[in-house]
Amino acid sequence: MTPRALLSRLRLAPLLHDGHHLRRLVSAAAASPPDEAPPGAPPPPPSNSRLFVAGLSWSVDERSLTDAFSTFGTVTEVRIIYDKNSGRPRGFGFVHFSNDHEAKCAKDAMDGKVMLGRPLRISFALEKVRGAPVIVPRLSTVK
DNA sequence: GTTGAGCGTT
User: Fold this and answer.
1) Is a pLDDT exceeding 50 seen at residue A15?
2) A107 CB closer than 7 A to any strand B atom
């Protein structure tokens, strides 16, 4: 009995014929670069076109926020965060701009400005948003 | 009818 016939009897032949599976896995692993930043690298910058706006008065709504920020660029989305259970505003929100330049201008201009009696605290948003493009900071991206 | 640092309700 040939070795091949023996493999057939053991039902191992399909596995050997399916070598492309293994090849796909190997090439995929080789194609994806390591996402581990080298030690000593600067921390990845937060997202640039979305602003985290804190220090909001309880009575500020999306309309007034949009009005306040749209003078610096195109506001694509404004979101004020409310408590899931109580429904009360949590006093912060997010302002999305169409590009990062507008966001930076708005941040520089509005950070620290008082709105309805309370000073705004603005910084760039951290977490990505559902549906937004996933931006993985790489060394070539950092200037 | 209140409160005050923070990173997002589907």
Assistant:
1) no
2) no
Q: What is the dihedral of CA A15, A20, A26, A29, to 10 degrees?
A: -120
Whether this prediction's pTM lies above 0.90 is answered by: no
How many angstroms is C1' of B3 away from CA of A37? Answer: 41
Q: Where are the domains of chain A?
A: 1-35, 50-124
Positive or negative: CA dihedral A32, A143, A98, A36: positive
Residue A98 reports pLDDT greater than 90: yes
Give strand B nucleotides closer than 7 A to any protein Cβ.
3-10
CATH of domain A50-124: 3.30.70.330
Residues belonging to chain A: 143
User: Of chain A residues 6-65, which have a beta carbon within 7 Å of strand B?
Assistant: 46-47, 50, 52, 54-58
